[in-house]
Specification:
alpha+beta, eight-stranded antiparallel beta sheet, 10 helices
């Protein structure tokens, strides 16, 4: 018998997140060993009148393929994958790999080629043309990253993922309204003094329709408005390597200096194309159950009291004109135990040390979302 929490999660994915309608094609894209959830999602899609399709990816086989992949291969794969994605109405991506560093020894130039020639073209179809949601599925590897037992992590996971997202969505409305009225943003904290404009760019609430877990409101900076320095205080896996102590300096929107635990490697990422040194997203994280980083961006970007400031591609929903094969959600936690920090909107302090301090946003503080 399946864990009833799996049934609840599958139902939320199908009926709340992507809202499957009769006759719709639904791609279930699963990485790693996630058979229970995939089976439950298939059943829920059929119950909703949809037509499920499944792709199962083994990360160890994917690594073997990428080690010697070439442009001709990727062109054939791109044609097939883009054509197939265009036939889908919904996409549910489930990630359950045992090793987040499985692709760490794939040469960076092949990873960049794979991202540019295959991943990005597929994303350019999936994101604007389907109803989509992506999530990780709990396993012992994730529990280890979170420094928890497997049983304790599973309890944490289902608390996070089966949260009442409709309640969260309602609580986000005032933040969306305030962001859309704001011109100047300033963020301060240890090693950080950053300013930029978000004037005229939509703010989008994320409450279970794109990611599970969810819990962020995002927009984008006006492309050339970013100035100052930001120091991120969470580890961030990207292209199979975990970056730490990332520090970026901006002038007129562009990253003019980038340092990290591997400064050469991080600059290669930002040199992939012109847009990689500009920022495509600014978002505020509010999930009350996610308190600490676990080297999984689907969780870490939603951390209570955090924000992320994302070099690379902007989203169509909050466009600032930046295009790139890179979209890297780098996270900074501003709760007091992480060093604190402030966010100002038009010189008004709206969040201090991770807590909203203006009356209209207090409903987003953790005790009001659980």
């Amino acid at each position: 018998m399946r864990d009833p929490r799996v049934e609840t999660l599958a139902g939320n994915l199908v009926n709340y997140s992507v809202r499957v309608q009769p006759g719709e094609n639904v791609l279930i894209y699963a990485v790693g060993q996630v058979p229970d959830l995939v089976k439950a999602v298939i059943q829920k899609v059929y119950e909703a009148g949809g037509q499920p399709y499944v792709q199962l990816i083994d990360p160890t086989i994917q690594r073997e393929l990428l080690l010697q992949v070439n442009e001709e291969q990727l062109a054939v794969m791109r044609e097939a994958d883009v054509s197939f994605m265009k036939k889908m109405d919904c996409y549910i991506g489930i990630r359950g790999g045992d090793n987040i560093n499985e692709l760490a020894d794939v040469p960076s130039e092949r990873m960049s080629m794979y991202s540019r020639l295959l991943q990005r073209p597929v994303l350019d179809v999936r994101v604007p043309e389907t109803k989509w949601v992506i999530l990780r599925y709990p396993n012992s590897s994730m529990a280890q990253l979170a420094n928890m037992s497997t049983a304790a992590f599973e309890d944490f996971y289902f608390n996070v993922c089966n949260l009442d997202y409709s309640k969260m969505a309602q609580a986000m409305d005032n933040l969306v309204s305030l962001m859309e009225q704001t011109d100047k943003v300033r963020i301060t904290g240890p090693g950080t003094d950053l300013s930029f404009s978000i004037k005229g760019i939509p703010a989008i609430k994320c409450a279970g329709h794109f990611n599970i877990p969810d819990g962020e409101v995002f927009t984008a900076p006006v492309k050339h408005s970013v100035n100052g320095v930001i120091s991120y205080n969470t580890p961030s896996p990207y292209q199979g390597f975990t970056f730490e102590n990332v520090r970026l300096t901006f002038k007129d929107g562009k990253i003019i200096e980038a340092t990290a635990n591997n400064t050469e490697r991080i600059n290669k990422i930002f040199d992939e194309d012109e847009g990689a040194r500009y920022v495509g997203e600014f978002a505020i994280g509010v999930n009350p159950f996610i308190q600490n980083p676990m080297k999984d961006i689907l969780f870490d970007e939603k951390i209570d009291g955090s924000f992320h400031f994302t070099p690379g591609q902007c989203y169509d929903e909050a466009p600032n004109g930046n295009k790139s094969s890179v979209h890297w959600d780098l996270v900074c936690i501003q709760r007091a135990e992480w060093g604190g920090g402030e966010i100002y909107f038009d010189d008004r302090l709206i969040r201090k040390d991770g807590r909203f301090v203006v009356p209209e946003l207090e409903s987003l503080n953790p005790e009001n979302l659980k």
